[in-house]
Fold each of these.
Amino acid sequence: MHGKTGVLLSILAGVVALALLVAWFTRPAPLPVRVEAVARGQVQDTVANTKAGTIEACRRAGISPRLGGQIDRMPVTEGDVVEAGEILMEFWNDDLRAQARLAQSELTASGARREQACIVADRAAREAVRQRRLGSQNLASEEAIDNAESQALAQQAACTAARSAVEVSRARLEVAQAALDQTQLRAPFPGVIAEVNGEVGEFVTPSPVGIPTPPAVDLMDISCLYVSAPIDEVDAPAIRVDMPAKISLDAFDDRVFAGRVRRVAPYVLDVEKQARTVDVEVAFLEAADCDCMLPGYSADIEVILAQHDDVLRIPTQAVREGNRVYLVGDDGRLEERSIDTGLRNWAWTEVTAGLEAGDTLVLSVDREGVAPGVLVEAKPGPGGDD
C-alpha cells in the first residue's frame, strides 16, 4: 500500500515539474520598454516660432541716388568696411563742380567788394565827424556838413548792401554744393558693403514710383544683430517686450544663445494661403555672440513665458492622453497612473502630484496595445534635453 502511494506521489511530482517546465518555456517574452527615473529640475513654458526666422542687421540701408547719372568713381567694393560719411559711389559731375567753383569765386569777389565798400563807409563817417567839429567852430558851412553826413549814410548803406551780396553768394555756393552732393552716395552709418549694383561707366537711375529696383549700394551694420521670427497668432498675445528667450541656429546646432524680446509687431501678418503670424524680434544678450554670425542665417527662437526651478519633472513624450503615464512596478509589470501637471514644453512636463522622485517612468514601448499588468523588460532611455 505504501509502495503504491510513493509511486503516485512520484508520478504527481513529475507531472507538476513537467507542467512548470512547459509553463517556463512557453511563457510570453517580457515587453521591452525604455525607462527613465523621475527627477527634479527646471521646467519652462515656452512659445516657439512656426516658421524659420532670420538673422537681421539692426541697421541696413539700400542706398540709391536721388538723381540719375553715369558712375564715374566707385571707391568701395563688396565686403569693404566703411565709416559714416565715406563716399560709396560718385557720378559724373564736372559741370556741377564747375558751377561750385564759379559760386566760390563769386563769393570771394563779393567779400572783396564788401571790404572795399565798408572801408569807404568808414572814411565817410570820419569825414562827417570832422565836418561837424569844424561847424561847431564856425569853420564849415551847413552845406558842407550836410554833404558829409549824407555821404557817410550812403556809404554805410553801400557797406550793408555789400554784406548782403556776400550772403547771397554764400547761399548760391551752398546750392551748387548741394547739387554736387546729390551726385555722391555717402554712408549714413558705419558698416559693411553687402552688395554693389553697378560698374564704372554704367548709367544709374532712381526707382520709379511703384516700381522697386535694386539699390545702388546695400550697406549693413553687422555689429548689431537680432532674430526676426513669425509666431502663430494664437501664441502671440502672451509675448511681451523684454521677456527672456533662447536662440538656436542651424549653422551652430550645438549652441543655444540667450536673448530678449525687443519688439512684437503691432499687427498680424495675413499672407494668402499661409497661417496668420506675428513677427517677433529677439536681440542677443551678449554682443560677442554676434561676432560669428552673418545676416541671413536661419534661426529659431523660444520665448520663455514662465519658469519653475527645482520641480519634479518628466519627459513630455512619456505623458499620454488624459495626463496618464506608465510606470514599472516592483514586480516588473506595467502600472498606469494619473498625474497632475504644471508647466510644460516640448521637452519637459512639471508633475505636481501622482509621482515621486526615483519612480521608474516608461518613456516608450516597442509595440502598441499594451495594458497595465504586462511583464516588461526595462531599457535605459536617452533622457530629455534641458
Amino acid sequence: MLSVMSGQTTSAEAAGKYGVPEEEVDTWKRQFLDGDWFAWFMQGGEGGFPFCP
C-alpha cells in the first residue's frame, strides 16, 4: 500500500501483483487513508489484505 501511496506503484500494478481487482486496491487505499487498518485483517473472519493468512 505504501508503494501505491508514494506513487512508486500504480493501483493496476499492485492489483496484478496480488491477483485482485484494481477496485480492491483502491478500497485498501481508502481504508488506509481513513485509518481503518482493522478492516484489512478482518473481512468475513479471514484476512482481507494479501499478507494476511
Amino acid sequence: MAVVAVGGRELTYVRRGAGEPLLLIQGMAGHHGLWGEEFLSLLARDFDVVAFDHRGVAGGGRVDEPFGVRDLAEDAVGVLDGLGWESAHVLGISLGGMVAQELVVAHPERVRSLVLGCTYAGPDGGALDGPGPVRMMTAAATRDVSKSLRAGYEANLSPEFRADEAEFERFVEAVLSEQVPAPVIALQMQAALQHDSVAGLADVRASTLVIHGTEDEMITPKNGDHVASLIPGARLEVFEGVGHLFWWERPERTAELVREHALGR
C-alpha cells in the first residue's frame, strides 16, 4: 500500500498492472480491499490501475468536519495530480459513483472514459430508498459485530451468490482488512444524502457506461436507469440476478466491460 499527499492528508492506495491509467473510486464504508484481488488482477492485464481510499479510511488521516461529494471529487483530482496523471479512465461505484459524477462535471478534461456502477444521481428522478441501508443500520445499533457483518453481506450480495457460505468468509476477510471508522461512515452518509448532480450530467461528454444489478438492495435498480438517462449517449448494462457488489459476483464480465468501454477491445 502506498500514500499520496492530498489536501494535507495522506490518502492510501494500491496499484496494479500497466497500460492506460484507470482510477477506481470505492463506495460508502469501502476501501481498496473491497475491490478484491481477482478483479484488480483482471483489470491489471490492460490498465495501470490505482484504487485509492477516501479521506479518513485505511489510515487516510483523521476526519472530523463534514464534507460533501464534491470535496471527495477534489480528493480524486488530488490523487490524479499526485500520481502525475493528467487524465484517466474512471470507475466509480455507489458513493464512488457519485464522486465520479462530480469529478467529470467539474473537471471533464481529467476523465478519459467513465463507468458508473450501482450509483445515484440525485432526488429529481432518483431515490435512496433501498432496504439494505436500513437493515445494516439496524444491525449496527446492536453493536454486535457478527450481526453487522452478516447484515452487510446480505444487503450487498444477491441471494444466489451468498448461498455459498464460503463467500461470507471471503467477504468478512475483505471488510476487516482495513479500518473504516464509524464516524467517517456517518459523514459519508450525510454527503451521499445531499448529493445532486442531475443538472450537471446533461453536459457530460465523456463516453459513459452505467452498470446496475437487478437484485441491488442498497441503491435500487431504477437509479441505474435514471443515471443513464441523464448522460448523453450513456449505455446501461444490467446484470440480472446480481446485487450491489456486482464486480464481486461477476468479476470477469465487469472487467471485460470496462476494457471494451475504455479501450474499444
